[in-house]
Amino acid sequence: MFMSSDVQRRTAMQERHVTQPHEAGHPIVLATEDLHVYYGSKEAIFEGDLQFAQNQITALIGPSGSGKSTYLRSLNRMNDRIATVKGRIMYRGVDINQPDIDVYEMRRRVGMVFQRPNPFAKSIYDNIAFALRLRGVTAKTKLDEIVETSLRQAALWEQVKDDLDKSALALSGGQAQRLCIARAIAVKPDILLLDEPASALDPVSTSQLEDTLLKLKQHYTIIIVTHNMQQAARISEYTAFFNQGRVLEYDTTSQIFTNPQVQVTSDYVSGNFG
């Protein structure tokens, strides 16, 4: 009997397909090699091997519990106290899990923005200036310059420039999330990690956040966890699909969404499960 074209396609599909970035002008700045992450005796990430290109946006997608956020948090050792990590996480050629690594300096270079906006109970100005002062920046003119630059890059300056002394807790959800981005970039990171940054935002705020990220990639390498397939398709150059703790497919975003090579990926991006 002859198989239908759909059955033939399913039969020809692979179980795993990983194509690492290799675009000219965008060197690899971060890579994980044979990465395994454990919570106690439970393995949450199996052989996570991915590379991330400079000044590109990479989306991490997959169903809930697939390991996306665990993987993301491993990239700047945010899980140090609760997880055991094996394998190598190479940031510009240095394994960040080496015992002599300055974790605080590493987290400055690889910054994190969380799922829900978490501004400090301080003024808008001090939300950004706080970390700068801790790092020895005390001159008012320098603080003013960095605060303004950071807010401009986060597309928030025009909305708050006359209210810098007001509490950050009074900002809308979208504004608060962009303030958190401004706070992260004020210390001049190299890479920005974002864990579902738009999940608590309305559609207008989500669109504004996406526009901000597209502009920020001129200066930063961005890795974002998202459940929003349209968002991943709109803003990312590369997409990694996670399922049950494994990276099943990694390729250009256009390839993942138009011609996935793994059946489970195809089912997920088409909305058949997840």
TrEMBL record:
Coiled coil: none
Entry-linked Gene3D superfamilies: P-loop containing nucleotide triphosphate hydrolases
Keyword Transmembrane in annotation: no
PROSITE patterns per record: ABC_TRANSPORTER_1 (PS00211), ABC_TRANSPORTER_2 (PS50893)
Skewed-composition ranges (Basic and acidic residues): 7-20
Region Disordered: start-end pairs: 1-20
Domain ABC transporter: 30-269
Keywords, in A-Z order: ATP-binding, Cell membrane, Hydrolase, Membrane, Nucleotide-binding, Phosphate transport, Translocase, Transport
MF terms in GO: ATP binding; ATP hydrolysis activity; phosphate transmembrane transporter activity
GO BP terms: phosphate ion transmembrane transport
EC numbers: 3.6.3.27
One GO cellular component term noted in the UniProt record for this chain: membrane
InterPro entries recorded: AAA+_ATPase (IPR003593), ABC_transporter-like_ATP-bd (IPR003439), ABC_transporter-like_CS (IPR017871), P-loop_NTPase (IPR027417), PstB-like (IPR005670)
Organism superkingdom: Bacteria
The protein's name: Phosphate ABC transporter ATP-binding protein
Organism: Levilactobacillus suantsaii
